[in-house]
Amino acid sequence: MMFAAPPVIGNNSPSFLLGKEGQNIELWCSATGSPEPQLTWLKDGNEVLSSEDIIVDGNKIRLNNLKREDGGAYQCVFKNVVGQASHTIKLIIKGYVYIMEKPRNITVQDGNEAKFICHADNEFHNSTFKWYKDNVDVQLVPGLGTLRSSILSDGTLIIRNVIKSDSAWFECEAKNEISTSAKAKAFLNVTYLPVVLTSDMTVLLPRNMPGLLSCPFDANPPVTSVVWTKNEQEIKFLDYTRVYKRNLSDLAFRTVRESDEGAYSCTPYSALGASKYSPRFQVHIRDPPYFKERPKRYYQKQVGDTISIPCEATGDPTPTIKWQKQNGQLDPEKKLIEDSRLVITYLSMDDSGYYECEASNEVATIVTTTLLIVEVSSPHRARNISIKTTENTANVKWLPAFDSDYAKRQDYFIWYREIEKNTKQNWTTIAVPDDYTSLLVENLKSDTRYEFVILSRNSLGNGLFSERHLVKTKGSKRHITKTEVYPSAAIAIPPPGPRPDSPRNLTIKNLGDTLEIRWLPPRNLTVPVQYYIVYFRTVGKFDDLSGPINNGTSFEWKGFSRGAKYRFKVFRRVLHSISLNFKQ
Q: Where in the numbering of this chain does the Fibronectin type-III domain appear (predicted)?
């Protein structure tokens, strides 16, 4: 008959072994038991497996070429169905200190004592110890130090009357007389009853609006439930009721009524029990703000204008009005609040956007939104025009027109024509170079009356013509032929000749924010092309869109309005005439 017996340790290596770096050493263990026990080798709690310099062979371990990391606590653990037995062998490599029993993570309730074990050894058995809390010497931590902590000679750390702020990583450092050290750390988790993070208070809830009472708390372990009372009677919650719990802790009202006035309190519970303190909320019902006058849904203004946007609210207590711009800031130099109205002066494109009027009192906050659209327009007419003439020239000067499309380039065109005996000739047009506000018109006839006007243009189109100016050149007996001036120079032209053929294959392509206008040159090029001009219209007369195009057969327009219908045509101009037929 066979009897079962637990493992019993037999012959084994001494409990303390001393080795040198580079040396070879062997550890062994034996045990008896029925059935025969199974052996597992551990080092510092982890199973030892064979490697290049470590050979595990049954009840023996051979360590070749000893290194510092080979030192530590080895265990041979024998197990069978009846039980288990183990033996610990401390291997010390000369010159080093080793933590043989490392501290473990612990959980302690506040007010109790926490104890961390840290046993270390070296060849002289004279290890010294230091402890750190989050990398700060425990003895130097305010409120902890020697007042509530002690380090025993064997390395054990004791913390008395633990508090919430003691929760942290603690690290043990063991040293020997030649200043080598070993370190190990563990976490202290301090548990405590739930604590409500607010005190008694008066709360105003908005009449006929949703309301909320919050019960903020701190707890470890987490809160599992919160009990609410009204006038010292527990509130029972049913599905789909007007008063309900939200997010475990909050008491919510779908619609606040007069009957909701009273004294409320909240008590959170965790696995450790209930909060020791429950604050009292004295609830009163008041009128929330409501708008007596709201802004319009949107406003449209021009650059440079001033706008006044109304917003008026009432309530109990009387609400305050605050204006703000979504995704931006109001310019304090341009913004003015007059009796809750928002006034913005000298509007620019940057003022476009959504604006919020916020009315708030102690009960609630309400917000209404409006959109401000600041539009650009074609430029105003040029002003303060002066013209000085000689026999064959006119020096034209002016001041720039106001341009709401301020971020774009503004162009000017001088139009002039000869006036003889009340007969008006065709207009001649000169494109003024960029950034010029004066131009010398040359090759005029002497002793002749001329009419001048200036046209302003930006990316949105033509502005208004300036006032008409009539001048006369100085007298001379010389004869000057009729001239036409181009953007940078005046060119004398002969009397009109045959008209050129018109451009071909006019196409328009929508590129999103740009219209691409293209055409082909005339088939008959015996009459050289001087330049092209693109005209457009929505209704009414065609208007000059491009100005002279000297190079190429295309034009890009970015100032169009989405959704509008346009008609386009292209003229071909030669040195002395313009195409009669145009492509449209």
A: 375-476, 502-584
pLDDT band, very low/low/confident/very high, at 580 (cuts 50, 70, 90) = very low
Cα 104 to Cα 185: distance, rounded to the nearest angstrom: 8
Sort strands 16-19 and 84-93 into parallel, antiparallel or unpaired. Answer: parallel
Q: Where in the chain is the domain with CATH 2.60.40.10?
A: 5-93, 98-193, 197-286, 290-375, 383-492, 504-573
Q: What is the pLDDT averaged over residues 532-551?
A: 76
Question: At which residue do the structure tokens 């045509």 appear?
Answer: 569
Dihedral sign from CA coordinates of 334, 335, 338, 343: positive
Place of tokens 């499309």: 405
The per-residue pLDDT of the chain, averaged, comes to 86
DSSP string, 313-345: EE-SSPPEEEEEETTS---TTTEEEETTEEEE-
Evaluate whether the domain defined by 197-286 bears CATH number 2.60.40.10: yes
Distance, in Å, from the CA atom of 358 to the CA atom of 363, rounded to the nearest integer, reads: 13
pLDDT top residue among 462 and 79: 79
Which range among 238-247, 345-354, 405-414, 520-529 shows the weakest confidence by mean pLDDT? Answer: 405-414
CATH number for the domain formed by residue range(s) 504-573: 2.60.40.10
Torsion (CA) 39, 45, 51, 52 in degrees, nearest 10: -120
The DSSP letter of residue 382 is P
